[in-house]
Amino acid sequence: MKILISACLCKERCRYDGRDCFRKEVMDLLAGHEIVPVCPEAYLGIPRSPCEILNGRLIDKNGEDLTESMQESITKILNEVHLESIDLAILKARSPTCGYGWIFDGNFKNRLIYGYGMFAKALADRGIRILEVD
User: Fold this and answer.
1) Other CB atoms within 10 Å distance of the CB of residue 102
2) Residues near 78 by Cβ (< 8 Å), separated by ≥ 6?
3) Cα-atom radius of gyration of the chain, to the nearest Å?
4) 130: nearest Cα among 10, 1, 4
5) How far, in Å, are 64, 67, 109, 115, 132 from residue 92 at the CA level?
6) What is residue 108's predicted lDDT score, i.e. its pLDDT?
7) Rounded Cα gap, residues 36 and 129, in angstroms
8) CA dist., res. 133 & res. 131, Å (int)
9) Which segments of the chain have a pLDDT < 50?
10) pTM, two decimal places
11) Going by C-beta distance under 8 Å and a sequence separation of 6 or more, which residues neighbour residue 35?
């Protein structure tokens, strides 16, 4: 099975604050599978100001609109990864990029709303099955 996975879950330090979100139990479950770690947010630079989605736009905590930059990052990854060979995507929960079902509300107050991160939506629109990991 070929699985696309949020790179931060694989120990890559690509979060906005330069940390990872490593989940050993996830990596243990994926042993024996081909994994493809990706992080569209890494193209925005590390470290960087945290981002959330507000009114359909990716906005950082300083008010800068990064929507176009993120769309370029997503397009680049989608062009590099052969999606037809991907069986599943495992993405980081609540992320403005990878969140699938629940994301932060865009006000930087730790409130969740129903929605999709930009990358998760792009994958779902292409028929990729997604699992979320907290």
Assistant:
1) 16
2) 122, 126
3) 14
4) 4
5) 23, 19, 19, 14, 6
6) 97
7) 15
8) 7
9) none
10) 0.95
11) 2, 3, 4, 5, 10
pLDDT tens for each residue of 12-44: 999 999 999 999 999 999 999 999 999 999 999
First to last CA, the chain: 22
Task: Collect all residues with Cβ–Cβ distance below 8 Å to 131 and sequence separation of at least 6.
Answer: 88, 89, 90, 91
For residues 112 and 94, is the Cβ–Cβ distance under 8 A?
yes
Instruction: Give me 27's structure tokens.
Output: 């990596």
The full length of the chain comes to 134
Rounded CA separation 46/24 (Å): 23
Q: What is the pLDDT of residue 65?
A: 98
pLDDT at residue 83, rounded to an integer: 84
Position 82 scores a pLDDT of 85
- Rounded Cα–Cα distance for residues 60 and 63 (Å): 5
Q: How far apart are CA 32 and CA 47, in angstroms?
A: 32
